[in-house]
Automatic annotation (TrEMBL):
Database matches in SMART domains: HTH_XRE
Protein name: HTH cro/C1-type domain-containing protein
Domain HTH cro/C1-type residues, every copy: 2-55
Highest taxon, organism lineage: Bacteria
PROSITE patterns per UniProt: HTH_CROC1
Length: 104
């Protein structure tokens, strides 16, 4: 796991112990010999202070959606009726574009 190596402070054995795993579990995960459960991935993300998305290779940013307030907002938006979501996202996209243009 690149996140573990990036931290540079945890050996495979250290991480295994922190997760309550046994034997060479982390090494097997890192070599793609075994896939960890969702619960294990969540615990690994917490220990390494990153996100599940980063561990799964969905993003290069180690802190995307770690902001709980932002995550709550996104969950709220996701729960709204489709038309309301579309209006909110349209407005949000316009605001994001405006901020990006300012920085050019």
């Amino acid at each position: 796991m690149e996140a573990r190596k990036r931290e540079g402070r945890l050996s495979q054995e250290d991480l295994t112990q922190l997760l309550g795993q046994r034997g060479p579990a982390i090494g097997r995960y890192e070599r793609d010999e075994v896939k960890p459960s969702v619960d294990v991935v969540k615990r690994v993300a917490a220990v390494l202070d990153t996100t599940v998305g980063y561990l799964l290779g969905e993003t290069e940013d180690t802190s995307v959606l770690k902001d709980q307030a932002m995550l709550k907002r996104l969950n709220d938006i996701a729960s709204f009726p489709e038309q309301d979501r579309e209006h909110i996202l349209y407005t949000l996209d316009a605001m994001i574009k405006s901020v990006k243009l300012k920085s050019l």
